[in-house]
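Support request, priority: normal
Reporter: lab tech (M.K.)
Component: structure prediction queue

Hi team, I submitted a job for SPH_0218 family bacteriocin-like peptide from Streptococcus pneumoniae serotype 2 yesterday, and the status page still shows it as pending. I've pasted the exact input below so you can check whether something in the sequence is tripping the parser. The sequence length should be 123 residues. Please let me know if I need to resubmit or if it's stuck on your end.
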Amino acid sequence: MELVLPNNYVVIDEEEMMYLDGGAIYIPRWAITGAITGAAYAALAAAGGGGLQLVLASYGLRSALVAGIVKGLGVLGIHIGNAFANTVIRSIASAGIGAGADWIFTNIIDGWDGRRDNQLRIG
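Reply from support: The job had stalled in the queue. We restarted it manually and it finished. Here are the results:
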């Protein structure tokens, strides 16, 4: 017994049956930059928490910032100045890590799929 098409079938071209621009998975910008940021924070945490202080101290930022804040808050004492300085340094570093992740996506990753559309096409 052989297969037979019904009498009222319609012949269509192969192009009509093809799924031309679909089936791909898109990863949005926020997911990729979030992963990069998370990896950077994990690397700093793996360094024992001192990694960030070591990097900033090597540029002289931490000592200059602490000295300026302690002088400005002289009455409140060195403990409050150091705590505030560490908070400011962490905020600056967080902004820097986020901006770095955004730069990596914009200038490196976004064009991998041949399109600059704030997402990465997989597949």
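The chain has a mean pLDDT of 69. The radius of gyration is 28 Å. Let us know if anything else looks off. Ticket resolved.
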